[in-house]
UniProtKB/TrEMBL annotation:
InterPro entries: ANF_lig-bd_rcpt, GPCR_3_9-Cys_dom, GPCR_3_C, GPCR_3_Ca_sens_rcpt-rel, GPCR_3_CS
Source superkingdom: Eukaryota
Main localization of the protein described in the UniProt heading: membrane
GO MF entries: G protein-coupled receptor activity
Subcellular location: Cell membrane
Pfam families: 7tm_3, ANF_receptor, NCD3G
Name of the protein described by the UniProt record: Extracellular calcium-sensing receptor-like
Membrane topology: Multi-pass membrane protein
Limits of the G-protein coupled receptors family 3 profile domain: 564-828
Length: 833
């Protein structure tokens, strides 16, 4: 059976393909043999208006007569029923090949030089492959699939609808503009949906954003499958979801979203449903679709179109010649239009009868609504593009190889002239096609807003223009109403924005947009949101508590205000005053035997050196400077050598005093007071020389230790020359060991004259302190190395003071009866006996 056709004869007849009915398929779309039975149901008012716009444009051209004088255009229009199979059958009938497949390519076009349609990309793909064999020009008004720009596969395909490449570019720029990094993508199961969604997903990823989910609405719109998609949208956490599908597939998704109460989603609409009244008109969708955004091709007003649409009336028309008028009329008025066939009247008893004289102007529906003429304008431009190409053919100069016979125009000749056509129409729009057969992309950014009367208004809130390869998106943000009637831009991210002071850390096995916010480590900062990495502060700076700024590090040294400094200062001053007290006691009792017994001059010199030892420890406390660093080490080295030299002198005196009691011994003349002073001066002079050379070659200097992992700058004195420092300590240790050996040799001398035991104990303490000092000094961090050195100085000084002078002070003050010559001599005699 031939398909129903709306036909009007003319000198040149244009073919037309329109999906006047939506398809309901009874089986799955995944078939392997013949297509399953289909039912063309649900008459589509919007597509019917597109068809009427084609007729209006043809009649306008015929009536005007200036564009194609003496030429009448006719039309032959089929219903493709939203299916590729039906679209292919209609194309074959247009070409006259439905019943005969043996005609040549040159003659089987059935006097149809061009076809306008189809609307759906999937239908156009099938038709374009077929018509391309005959080089029959096909101008689509709504097929936007980017795949149709391939001129090798579809050489005869042109369109007045921009390619999805441009629509996707606009959508991607929209996502980028509002900072959405976690976007869901839902596509229809056709070339339009899959192709556009795939391009969008790829381009969004190049921006650094992520696709939260990418699902396909099956063509059979099985409830279980659609319900699964809604569940995945809910669980994904995406608050912005693009639906790249035709209006029928989108409606199935939104019906299920209503059933499952999926709210709070900011829907992005592809061009196929961004202005679809089938979704914007029913109030049931207002709850979830209010605030939706999408791109729609530019709208315009076509003068006279609405009157033409409303003049349609089957009462005075030959209805059988317009097979689409009856279902349209019955759907509009929900009635049964009685028709007479072979003398019998046929009516649908389930609906009230209607006469056909009803007024379309009394009914508000999508068909008569000309406030959003977008696709209708594409149809209008397609007709005029073909008419201008025909005009160019009839106006060309004979002899031109591209100039065909105007009375015998072949489709390939018309195709060539359509590709070359360029004109500005009565609305001021330039109509031309690029090398891919695509027009320039000009979109309106539309926003679905609830009106005061409760209806849905499609408001233009921005534009997108593609001019000479430059793409520019302009948005009037103040005019946008978002989902939920909010004015604040919705946030759609997998993870919250990382504030300053943190950085993004990618979650394993998650998309790159899903991250955790990790606080910058100590010493690192980030002063911007969503920082990829933290920046390490310079060595002298440290991060503040918020990790947002670098601040100068705290300078640390052993100060007088520090707890440790106060304690060491107190201990040092106590030692100083104790030594001064001993000096006072010795001066007051300088004539007593116990003071005079062991060379009182050496004792006073030793006390003076101990006083200096206690005081030199104070030079280690306070902020290091050039002078304090040089003073502390040299004063320490010289005063301790002086102290140990005095002890060495006292040890020699004790030892030599008893050697001199042997008959014939003249040892004491070599160790008199002058020689003792010479020993002390010579021993000290060596240390002075070492210190002078040290200060000239590599003096101690202040140094800042700035460890990366520490919030403090350690200010200390660098030894300058480790060798010189080792020599100073080594020389002190040499003298101390010599004192220890000599004192050990004199340990059995009579007690009353014998300081050797006291010196032995003091030297043991001295040596133990400084032997322990070396590893402790090396391993102590920062200012604690200075504390270790001060502690060693004080400990050894207290050891000398306590071991040598404490017993004598005890006798002088508490046991004065023992501080007599008689007592001392009696003890000596007893020891000798």
């Amino acid at each position: 059976m031939s398909l129903p056709v709306l036909e009007k004869k003319g000198d040149i007849t244009l073919g037309g393909l329109f999906s006047l009915h939506d398809m309901v398929e009874e089986h799955s779309v995944s078939y392997t043999s013949a297509p399953p039975p289909t039912q063309c149901t649900r008459f589509n008012f919007r597509t019917f208006r597109w068809m009427q716009t084609m007729i209006f444009a043809i009649e306008e051209i015929n009536r005007d007569g200036r564009l194609l004088p003496n030429i009448t255009l006719g039309y032959k229009i089929y219903d493709s029923c939203s299916t590729p199979h039906q679209a292919l059958r209609a194309a074959m009938e247009l070409m006259g090949t439905e019943k005969s497949s043996v005609q040549s390519k040159e003659t089987c076009h059935g006097n149809i030089p061009a076809v306008i349609g189809d609307g759906g990309s999937t239908q156009s793909l099938v038709v374009a492959r077929f018509l391309g064999v005959f080089h029959m020009p096909q101008v689509s008004y709504f097929s936007s699939c980017a795949c149709l720009s391939d001129k090798k596969e579809f050489p005869a395909f042109l369109r007045t609808m921009p390619s999805d490449f441009f629509q996707v570019d606009a959508l991607v720029q929209l996502v980028k503009h509002f900072g959405w990094s976690w976007v869901g993508v839902i596509a229809g199961d056709d070339d339009y949906g899959r192709g556009g969604a795939n391009i969008f997903a790829d381009k969004v990823r190049t921006l650094g954003a992520c696709v939260a989910l990418h699902e396909i609405i099956p063509k059979n719109r099985a409830p279980a499958a659609v319900s699964s998609i809604v569940s995945k949208i809910r669980s994904s956490g995406a608050r912005v979801v693009l639906v790249f599908a035709v209006e029928q597939d989108a409606a199935a998704l939104f019906d299920e979203a209503l059933r499952e109460d999926l709210t709070g989603i900011q829907w992005l609409a592809s061009e196929a449903w961004s202005t679809a009244a089938v979704l914007s008109s029913p109030k049931k969708y207002h709850q979830i679709l209010q605030g939706s955004m999408g791109f729609a091709i530019r709208q315009t007003h076509i003068p006279g179109l609405q009157d033409f649409l409303l003049r349609l009336n089957p009462a005075g028309a030959d209805v059988p010649e317009n097979p689409f008028l009856k279902p349209f009329w019955e759907e509009v008025f929900q009635c049964s239009l009685g028709l007479t066939t072979n003398g019998q009247e046929h009516t649908d008893e389930r609906k009230p009868p209607c006469s056909g004289s009803e007024e379309l102007g009394n009914v508000t529906n999508i068909y008569s609504d000309v406030s959003q003429l977008r696709i209708s304008y594409n149809v209008y431009k397609a007709v005029y593009a073909i008419a201008h190409a025909l005009h160019a053919i009839r106006s060309c100069v004979k002899g031109d190889p591209h100039c065909p016979d105007p009375d015998n125009i072949q489709p390939w000749q018309l195709l060539h002239h359509i590709k070359q056509v360029t004109f500005v129409n009565s609305f001021g729009d330039e109509i031309k096609f690029d090398e891919n057969g695509d027009p320039a992309a000009m979109y309106d950014l539309v926003n679905w807003q609830l009106a005061a009367n409760g209806g849905m208004e499609i408001t233009t809130v921005g534009t997108f223009d593609e001019m000479s390869g430059k793409q520019e998106l302009q948005i009037q943000e103040q005019n946008i109403i978002w989902n939920g009637n909010r004015t604040k831009v919705p946030l759609s991210v997998c993870s919250s924005i990382c504030p300053p002071g943190t950085r993004k850390a990618i979650r394993p096995n998650f998309p790159i947009c899903c991250h955790d916010c990790v606080v910058c480590t100590d010493g690192e900062i980030s002063n911007q949101t969503d920082a990829i990495e933290c920046v390490r502060c310079l060595p002298e700076f440290w991060s503040d508590s918020q990790r947002m700024a670098c601040i100068p590090k705290e300078v640390e040294f052993l100060s007088f205000s520090d707890t440790m400094g106060v304690v060491l200062t107190a201990i040092s001053l106590i030692g100083f005053f104790c030594t001064c007290t001993v000096v006072v006691i010795f001066i007051h009792h300088r004539a007593t035997p116990i003071v005079r017994a062991n060379n009182s001059e050496l004792s006073f010199l030793l006390l003076l050196s101990l006083t200096l030892c206690f005081l030199c420890s104070l030079t280690f406390i306070g902020r290091p400077s050039q002078w304090s660093c040089m003073l502390r080490h040299t004063a320490f080295g010289i005063t301790f050598v002086l102290c140990v030299s005095c002890i060495l002198g006292k040890t020699i005196v004790v030892l030599m005093a008893f050697k001199a009691t042997l008959p014939g011994t003249k040892v004491m003349k070599w160790f008199g007071p002058a020689q003792q002073k010479a020993i002390i001066i010579f021993s000290t002079l060596i240390q002075v020389i070492i210190c002078i050379v040290w200060l000239f070659v590599a003096p101690p200097t202040p140094r800042k230790l700035m460890p990366r992992e520490s919030p403090i700058v350690i200010l200390l004195c660098d030894e300058g020359s480790p060798v010189a420092f080792a020599l100073v300590l080594g020389y002190i240790g040499l003298l101390a060991c010599l004192c220890l050996v000599l004192a050990f040799l004199a340990r059995k001398l009579p007690d009353n004259f014998n300081e050797a035991k006291l010196i032995t104990f003091s030297m043991l303490i001295f040596c133990a302190v400084w032997v322990a000092f070396v590893p402790a000094y090396i391993s102590s961090p920062g200012k604690y190395s200075t504390v270790t050195e001060v502690f060693a100085i004080l400990a050894s000084s207290y050891g000398l003071l306590g071991c040598i002078f404490a017993p004598k002070c005890y006798i002088i003050i508490l046991r004065p009866e023992k501080n007599s010559r008689k007592h001392l001599l009696s003890r000596v005699a007893t020891d000798k006996f």
